């Protein structure tokens, strides 16, 4: 895990802003930690438009700040090259994002921690005020 003492725990609701906006995102990095098992995974999510459709691309950390592309998130699953990705890391993030889309934030927040490193989860800029750090989004991205 790449998280350090500067990592901030936020509500899973911040992820809703990341995966539902129609704005390019070059790779928000965050860590999910299960409160039950203690297992954690660090992910990078990017949003890109292609032929009028928005796609959410997911990568997982495989070494310190080295990410491997898992696939594109759609309808509760990750797809890559036309098939569903079935690894543990892919299933974990697909489940979380499906819950986020359903706005099941209370359930998610009682079962896992979402952590960020002080950068906006949407645009990647460094967060400098307490409220932005607390929610994981800068004022511009939070208002969209």
Structure report:
There is one protein chain. This protein starts with 7 loop residues before the first strand and ends with a helix. With 144 residues, the protein is of the alpha+beta class. Helices cover 28% and strands 38% of the residues. The longest helix has 14 residues, at 88-101. Strand 3 and strand 4 (53-63) form a beta hairpin. It has one domain (8-143). The protein has helices spanning 13-20, 88-101, 105-111, 130-135, 139-143, and strands at 8-10, 25-34, 40-50, 53-63, 66-74, 77-80, 83-84, 112-116. The chain has an 8-stranded antiparallel sheet. The protein has 5 helices and 8 strands, in the order E-H-E-E-E-E-E-E-H-H-E-H-H.
Question: What is the secondary structure topology, with strand pairs?
Answer:
Elements: E1 8-10, H1 13-20, E2 25-34, E3 40-50, E4 53-63, E5 66-74, E6 77-80, E7 83-84, H2 88-101, H3 105-111, E8 112-116, H4 130-135, H5 139-143
